């Protein structure tokens, strides 16, 4: 099967250099430093040696060229360039770069605008270019780093990418024009689980994890609120960063008061950024705010603390819901009614220990 491989990205992302490297041909697409705006002004399609077509497109970030660029991207997604193909398969790849450890707001907004113009079944992939090798190693080796990286991305993107790939920073490409990258690519799924390492860049687009799709229709790209959307993304990212710092401090203070704190493992939801702490010794989980608390009504499988008056607190699961639920402690075979039932909280938790 032949594909139309379309590269979309803002000026400075290295998109055209990546396209030339995939083609194994210097100057396949014009690339290099451009002080005023991106090198690519309109979409360009060329045939690869394997029969696939690769398409370079202009970016949306340049305000003076934004209207024209949006039209060129729409054309690139609408026109069939493979001969004798009425409904080609596309591999849509957004090329982005990091800024202060996260994907730039301009790139997130560009992805959202383009994908909103396509039908809901369209799939896309992200390639993060120019990432320092040390940063990449730290990111992929730490679940906490993965969660911190994915939280603002998942909150900002309107739809989830099929894959996220990383191209390490290539020192030889600094301020050079029309060169080929030698860096090897790391291909991950959308949760940053590594699928394959040490991939040649020209092999990347045909990997199965770089999912393809048909483009059934393309609406006009809605660009009038581009700057406003970028500002919103920036504010959201700063808010998440502040909340994360406050939550870390709160949990740190909780752990500092808690005996056997070295038995704790941090857990973070990669989609929401929520943090919980699981104690290996006690088989307990604590949230800064009780996650499963339903107000006065407890649901089945809620994790709660229970005790009879004057007795020791126990931790268990609700087996019969209601305002006065039946609860089965972890070490018991069945549940029963209790004098006191509370959601797991810092105060109750410390009382248990």
Structural description of this entry:
The protein contains seven helices and 17 strands. The chain has helices spanning 15-23, 66-78, 105-116, 133-141, 143-156, 226-257, 346-352; strands at residues 3-8, 44-47, 53-56, 89-99, 102-103, 125-131, 163-168, 185-189, 194-199, 213-214, 264-268, 275-279, 284-287, 303-307, 314-320, 326-329, 340-343. Strands 1, 2, 3, 4, 5, 6, 7, 8, 9 and 10 form a ten-stranded mixed β-sheet that branches. It has a four-stranded antiparallel β-sheet with strand order 16-15-14-17, covered by helices on one side. Helix 4 (133-141) packs across helix 5 (143-156). Mean pLDDT is 82; it is low at 32-37, 288-296 and 346-351.
Task: Provide the descriptors you would attach to this structure in a database record.
17 strands, 25% strand, ten-stranded mixed beta sheet, 2 domains, disordered C terminus, Rossmann fold, elongated, 7 helices, single chain, alpha+beta, four-stranded antiparallel beta sheet
What name does CATH use for the topology of the largest domain?
A: Rossmann fold
Largest sheet: 10 strands, mixed
CATH architecture of the largest domain: 3-Layer(aba) Sandwich
Share of helical residues: 25-40%
The number of strands is: 17
Q: Report the total helices.
A: 7
Question: Tell me, what is the CATH class of the largest domain?
Answer: Alpha Beta
Mean pLDDT: 82
Residue windows where pLDDT falls under 50 for at least 5 positions: 32-37, 288-296, 346-351
Shape: elongated
Series of secondary-structure elements, N-terminal to C-terminal: EHEEHEEHEHHEEEEHEEEEEEEH
- Specify the structural class: alpha+beta
